[in-house]
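Figure 6 in text form: structure in, sequence out.
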């Protein structure tokens, strides 16, 4: 087994302590979030409903969800292939570790975990790995925007429907605001990719960066040289490696393949929801309606929340299912069980992947924090 090591520094113990504290706070916040979602539902009725669920459907639902992660790995490996060729397992393990960390730690730290592991194990520059993760997320955002437009056009959302969750009000206005925000984010990412991915515009940006020391005309030449050496040159190098991670964007055929893979990924995710709904009394919705529920939940959990999106996921599920006449008790029962089966297998597979490739979760979390601090 190949063990992955990470550089030590005087702040590692402090960072590990901070991670433990954040994890403990995450658990407390999750408990509070669940309370906010469940406080208006009689626990006795909910407990009774949970006993009526046919849990046999968990197995095929989990299997389909894990297959979607296999397709995600294929897509990420395909994106990476434009810069560096790696095997399926070299991509699968970092991806599952990253998603696992997103489930248990705040701040979506898992997005940084993937490029860190690639850098340590496969010598792929961190900035290149980070760009491929950003490219993968861009495909998700684009498809989510398109699916959201379809949902808003075909599903009537009562303007008066409002579910309070802490400081948030989950309603049509919030959904539109999130959708608009995602559209702006996607447009900004595309503009950024265009700027750095084409050599002509990238050269202009690099020249501007290298010219920054001239702004400090009142400083001596030694200061300007140090700034050029320690800041400008590393930044331009980062920019070159980052652009390498987006090399796939130049090939329309490969972009089309990634779009098809993204459609398969989201279709499988919705199918996992649908299969679980087959075992839940009172949840008799079509595949398209379940997909609409999934999209609405995904939009709501884009809001800042506790690790694992506990509480906000449930509140979003109740809101989405209420659009189709599902009672709060049945909606909460289905959403809670579905949330668990969507998250727990990812955590388990991520931990197994960490053991297989010899990655210490605490070390990689600490290293991610160091990256963020810098």
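Output sequence:
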């Amino acid at each position: 087994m190949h063990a992955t090591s990470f550089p030590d520094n005087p702040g590692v113990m402090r960072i590990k302590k901070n991670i433990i504290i954040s994890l403990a706070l995450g658990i407390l916040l999750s408990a509070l979030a669940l309370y906010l979602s469940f406080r208006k539902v009689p626990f006795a009725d909910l407990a009774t409903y949970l006993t009526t669920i046919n849990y046999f459907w968990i197995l095929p639902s989990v299997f389909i969800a894990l297959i979607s992660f296999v397709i995600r790995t294929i897509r990420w490996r395909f994106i990476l292939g434009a810069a560096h060729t790696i095997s399926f397992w070299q991509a699968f393990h970092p991806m599952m570790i990253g998603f696992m960390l997103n489930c248990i730690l705040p701040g979506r730290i898992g997005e940084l975990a993937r490029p860190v592991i690639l850098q340590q194990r496969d010598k792929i520059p961190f900035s290149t790995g980070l760009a491929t993760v950003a490219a993968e997320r861009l495909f998700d955002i684009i498809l989510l925007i398109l699916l959201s437009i379809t949902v808003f056009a075909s599903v009537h959302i009562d303007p008066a429907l409002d579910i309070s969750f802490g400081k948030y009000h989950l309603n049509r206005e919030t959904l539109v605001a999130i959708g608009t925000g995602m559209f702006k984010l996607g447009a900004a990412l595309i503009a950024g990719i265009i700027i750095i991915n084409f050599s002509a515009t990238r050269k202009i940006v690099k020249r501007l960066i290298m010219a920054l020391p001239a702004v400090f005309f009142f400083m001596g030449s030694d200061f300007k040289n140090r700034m050029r050496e320690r800041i400008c040159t590393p930044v331009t190098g980062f920019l070159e490696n980052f652009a390498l991670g987006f090399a796939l964007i130049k090939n329309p055929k490969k972009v089309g393949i990634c779009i098809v893979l993204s459609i398969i990924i989201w279709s499988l995710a919705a199918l996992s929801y649908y299969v679980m709904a087959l075992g839940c009394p009172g949840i008799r919705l079509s595949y398209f309606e379940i997909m609409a529920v999934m999209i609405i939940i995904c939009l709501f959990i884009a809001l800042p929340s506790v690790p694992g999106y506990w509480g906000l996921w449930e509140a979003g599920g109740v809101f989405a299912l209420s659009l189709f006449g599902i009672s709060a008790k049945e909606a909460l029962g289905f959403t809670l069980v579905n949330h668990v089966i969507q998250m727990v297998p990812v955590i388990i597979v991520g931990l197994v992947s960490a053991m297989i490739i010899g990655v210490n979760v605490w070390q990689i979390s600490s290293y991610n924090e160091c990256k963020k601090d810098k």
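Caption detail: The two ends are 31 Å apart (CA to CA).
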